[in-house]
Design a protein that fits this description.
Layout (H helix, E strand, L loop, with lengths): L1 H14 L16 H8 L8 E7 L1 H4 L13 H12 L5 E5 L7 H6 L1 H4 L7 E5 L1 H4 L3 H18 L3 E5 L15 H16 L2 E3 L1 H9 L9 E3 L2 E2 L1 H12 L5
Parallel strand pairs: 1-2, 1-3, 3-4, 4-5
Antiparallel strand pairs: 6-7
């Protein structure tokens, strides 16, 4: 009987496979199929839809109520992609609404976002999600992520850009908490992450004034939007 138990134990040990550790999608390879499509020339190319879903920052609000669409990061991304992929036809579709949080964004996700059949979806709500808290925002983000993954859409999550009333270099601040939660979601679902928060924090940590990157307290200027665009472009140009 002891020999039988030993054999069974050896069998289960030999057949056991440790769970695969999930990771954030690798910027070098995550969008390989998209990048291949962007390189195709007529008549083999097709339109690539990039959908930006979020609040006032991706919507292009600078100093409210001014909307500087062409200086905001979605169009900075478009400009860089057109330089890198001159034969590509790329649509920038902006479904963002100023003042909105992810709960509201999740409720209109199917009719306002999925209808556009995104090739790549960007979600940027963390700055406003401070008002609904971590638990509700996590639920809303996951609902959108799951719906998009069911459609085989590539997803890149964005961590929050600054609000200068929050000290970005102070450990444990509210924006950092949301940034960490978004990072964990990217890891859980093995999707992309554009870490805007880390980009701005890297600027601020040596003691630089973030106001040089802001048009008002919670909206970046063109220079600030460039930091966000750079974080995104790592997935397209490498």
């Amino acid at each position: 009987m002891k020999n039988l138990y030993l054999l069974l134990a050896l069998f289960f040990l030999s057949s056991y496979q440790a769970p695969v550790e999930k990771e954030i999608a690798d910027p070098a390879t995550y969008l390989d199929e998209i990048k291949a499509s962007l390189k195709k020339e007529w008549p083999d190319n097709h339109t690539i839809n990039l959908v930006f879903h979020g609040h006032s920052v991706p919507a292009g609000y600078f100093k409210t109520p001014v909307v500087n669409t062409l200086e905001a990061y979605p169009y900075q991304v478009l400009k860089a992609l057109k330089a890198a992929y001159p034969y590509a036809v790329i649509n920038i579709i902006n479904t963002s609404i100023g003042g909105e949080n992810s709960e509201s964004g999740s409720k209109r996700f199917a009719k306002d976002v999925l209808i556009h059949k995104p090739d790549v979806l960007f979600i940027d709500y963390a700055l406003n999600d401070r008002g609904i808290g971590l638990d509700k925002s996590k639920s809303a983000w996951e609902a959108m992520i799951r719906q998009a993954l069911e459609k085989n859409i590539k997803i890149i999550l964005l961590t929050p850009s600054p609000d200068t009333s929050v000290h970005i270099s102070e450990p444990g601040n509210v924006l950092e908490k949301h940034a960490l939660q978004i990072r964990s979601l990217a890891k859980k679902y093995s999707i992309g992450l554009a870490n805007s928060y880390a980009a701005f924090k890297q600027v601020a940590d040596p003691g630089n004034d973030l106001n040089a990157y802001m048009s008002q307290i919670n909206h970046p200027n063109e220079k600030g939007h460039a930091l966000i665009a750079e974080a995104i472009l790592r997935y397209f140009i490498n």
